[in-house]
Amino acid sequence: MTETVPSRRSGGRDARRAARLHAQLERTPFLTRTLAPFEVLGEEGLSLIEENADTILQEVGVEFRGDADALRLLADAGADVQGERVRFPRGMCRRIVQASAPRQFTQYARNPANHVEIGGMHTVFAPNYGSPFVRDLDGGRRYGTIEDFRNLVKLTYLSPHLHHSGGTVCEPVDVPVNKRHLDMVYAHMRYSDKPFMGSVTAPERARDTVEMCRILFGADYLETHPVTLSLINANSPLVWDSVMLGAARAYAEANQATLLTPFILAGAMAPVTAAGVAAQTLAEALAGMTFVQLTRPGAPVVLGSFASSMSMQSGAPTFGTPEPALVLYTMAALARRLGVPFRSGGSLCASKIADAQAAYESAATLIPTVLGGVNFVLHAAGWLEGGLAVGYEKFILDADQCGMMAVFVKGVDLSENGQALDAIRSNGPGQHYLGTAHTLANFETAFYRSETADNNSFEQWEEDGSLDAAQRANRIWKRMLREYEAPPLDEGIDEALRAFITERKASMPDSEV
Amino acid sequence: MTETVPSRRSGGRDARRAARLHAQLERTPFLTRTLAPFEVLGEEGLSLIEENADTILQEVGVEFRGDADALRLLADAGADVQGERVRFPRGMCRRIVQASAPRQFTQYARNPANHVEIGGMHTVFAPNYGSPFVRDLDGGRRYGTIEDFRNLVKLTYLSPHLHHSGGTVCEPVDVPVNKRHLDMVYAHMRYSDKPFMGSVTAPERARDTVEMCRILFGADYLETHPVTLSLINANSPLVWDSVMLGAARAYAEANQATLLTPFILAGAMAPVTAAGVAAQTLAEALAGMTFVQLTRPGAPVVLGSFASSMSMQSGAPTFGTPEPALVLYTMAALARRLGVPFRSGGSLCASKIADAQAAYESAATLIPTVLGGVNFVLHAAGWLEGGLAVGYEKFILDADQCGMMAVFVKGVDLSENGQALDAIRSNGPGQHYLGTAHTLANFETAFYRSETADNNSFEQWEEDGSLDAAQRANRIWKRMLREYEAPPLDEGIDEALRAFITERKASMPDSEV
Question: Above 0.85 for ipTM, yes or no?
Fold first, then answer.
């Protein structure tokens, strides 16, 4: 038992690097769950919500704003279009989506070891998305920069627990709004080799993303290989706006994947009740996915659900509460019944810092995310303040939790070694198992080893400086960034990407919209 | 929407007290789950573990140490007794337990509103148990005292989210070991009216507990009403010792309930694997429950499982990791199949303080506790440092999480109001729901209101002092203790209890064993 531990302890930096490489080699590119998802509603309840979604689509309808082409497309497919209001005959959306949307698809990465499966029994973790602020223990809270953006891409690349580089990991507010998408997409391509998301803040920025992907992967490759997965948010209640429709169209036309996500603060963008939120979410997502499937049948779509509860005192969004978990479990079941991949959850919280509130709330979101069977998990690491900020320490702590999920979803090992009956037989009452052959044989892999938890004695912890989890995480992300090395990228491709960016930036004046 | 909020905001202390009273009135004395438990193994896997448990009982056996009466009892019932080693023919324990142990029972409290149902679809939360140290933000970590003990009993009494007063909420080390059980049991009786646990550190201390219960409830009452539920831990692997057997006997003879709990640090007291831990836990618990049922058929028993993983570097116990969650889900299913109530889980952690580590680990234990269908939850609030310490702030934070669980287990409301279809119909695309009739009608009860989370804006949070969750919890427990008022207790009974304690204390010299 002592042969391994001392060498690991004394090895210092080299040993740590070796251990990390080992972890990289052992890591799986995504989770494959072995457990049936947790369900909060039976057949009857789920059918009822599906019927209500159909009623909403038929009676109330959905507005498709500022996009005449979308209205024509939907009318031609049989929808009742009055002005911008589109009403769908019962079952129309479900039929169209089920006819062509894939149940599961591969998102390709430039490193084939990092291809991810979206759908089925798989779960893919991606980092925080969309925060204008960043926070770390040293600098406190401040606006995000492109340097922060790159740091978060690098940390995601280095984390064996995150499978996907994400998209707007933070808003780089030091780059003009109309040009930052170029720097963001380039950062994902240059500093990581994991799959990533594209820009959606304007249709032409989506097209820039597609162009850059064509440079990186080859133009023909994209036609048959989704290499981006981009976030198309509904403007709830029951509105899809022209920016989102334009971005969704740009990606669909290039056979790239989109997440159609109603973003709902219950009580503001939908009724306050879980069943009401679920019915409206399903209606909105169905309408969005229908638009994508009519635009290009077979283009991969993911049904998204983002639902938070609300502080009834202040109207602020709240996270990690029971109600969003109930919505998540419900929506996951509805997506399975529809037969499309599902996005929801993450490590969400309202806390401003990486304290106990942040952790309780994040765990109370991430555990349902995994038990409910979510396929694509945005915001799996770093999220603070209802998404207004991304925290470096929070990122490290959350990623560690994602690592635990990878172990959990494997379930109980029922092999002979797992049953350990011979070990119990040969040990006998009152004899401890610390040095037994079975313990030694399973020593290295028996338990998940947290990178952030302090499991030492109180005395040792005190001697080590009485650090809290955030303080330990602070040391970890700094060490990771110090030791970061970029994955190799073909120089010609890199030059072509830079040339494209230079040309695009030169083609327009800076703008803050 | 504004009619309720301002009055609540401006009311100050009186309004807070009124709100709290309201919460007390609304609270349910225990949870009743409406959702099917999460399962990690199917019929085949669970049968396999049951067979392995039978193999352990038959081939390896269990030692019953220092208790000749127990050995005789087991031999008479058909066990193979060699010295202190007891081997059980396959199926014997299961048959005996199923023949007489109740599937569900009521534990009675002196306040009938606080009776709890143990078993079935019910979940009962009890606080931390057994810690020699206490911690709060002001005093740091120190040995627990009887004053701390009383404080924790008072806080549990005041919390609407905890249903049970627990037992050794902390060790009052300022009272001699051989007398502290009297002060502890009295504290539960005097400062709370919720159900509680008895002493188990010596058979005569269990009998003292029973005597005090007879004074409080009446001697005859106990014969038909379990009023204590006491923690009988196995000395794993596969040993029941004379102290625990003696305490279990004392309670069983008085028809009082016991929790038979193998306490397993996997890799030390059992093999490192989940299936191995589960088989051994089941074998040990079956042997213990068999002893109780033979002692007094029908005396309530609870199958307990406490399993932690281990740091393979230091050998220290670790919590909130995936492996103990898998054991918990497995054991919960095995207890359901056996047909006895189940105890496990809690808000367990290895962290020394109420930081993010503590919260992640606690949530990763408490959520499986509820989803797995645990019936009695010890350590639901306050636990730190693998149980070595109980934290005042951690207690407050954990209790808030227990409150969320009470909402979650109700599941999705599918009433017309829950479906909210009329609200969606009458609202239309692009219109927010903040002032709608449906939102107003559901305003008060729509979302769980956390007592500890800060959901304000960053700016407001900063203005309020940039407090973390533990700092906010510190203010809460102090306010609760300031405002505490003891529940009424008949003066004659109180005098009789005090007289009994005085007499017992005078009957023996102080001892630290």
Answer: yes
